[in-house]
């Protein structure tokens, strides 16, 4: 599995393509593309690389991570769209505030299935472990790929920082517990691809993240 990333929308949200090299199937994680140019960037990459979109996954459902979900479902029909059930209220609240955040053209998307901690997600020959990591959002999950020591981490752990917990459903103690039990238990060389900013490693954050000392 390889990872391709795009920074979309005014929040500089990281949308990821997880690519199964053996089959050229891919999973889109946290589709944040909003403008036509952003949408075209995602579509052009997928078409140029001759990828087959197999899944749309969300670590969580805050507005910046779901702005492009319906675009994905329109462009690649019948793509399964999976979120954790505890984040459905987060997703369904987005239309109530999207215009106030400057996204009047937001189009809501409805999931077709659920992500369940401990139940793997598969596409092509790739299998992702789903780990439940609430604290930033009630139904937040991360995706761990052990063979490549990779985590797609959403807004849980950042380079020298952690996710904010002042949004509805946030809980600082819960977030720290999630990091300690679901991320810091992974090998130090595990690469974390976060929802914002550059990639980091578990080892670096264990040693240098001021929120984890």
TrEMBL record:
PANTHER family: HYDROXYACYLGLUTATHIONE HYDROLASE GLOC. InterPro entries: MBL_Glyoxalase_II, Metallo-B-lactamas, RibonucZ/Hydroxyglut_hydro. Gene3D superfamilies: Ribonuclease Z/Hydroxyacylglutathione hydrolase-like. SUPFAM superfamilies: Metallo-hydrolase/oxidoreductase. Residues 12-196 form the Metallo-beta-lactamase domain. This is MBL fold metallo-hydrolase. It comes from the Bacteria. SMART domains: Lactamase_B. The keyword Hydrolase applies. Signal peptide: none annotated. Keywords: Hydrolase, Metal-binding, Zinc. The keyword Hydrolase applies. Its cofactor is Zn(2+). GO terms for molecular function: hydrolase activity; metal ion binding.
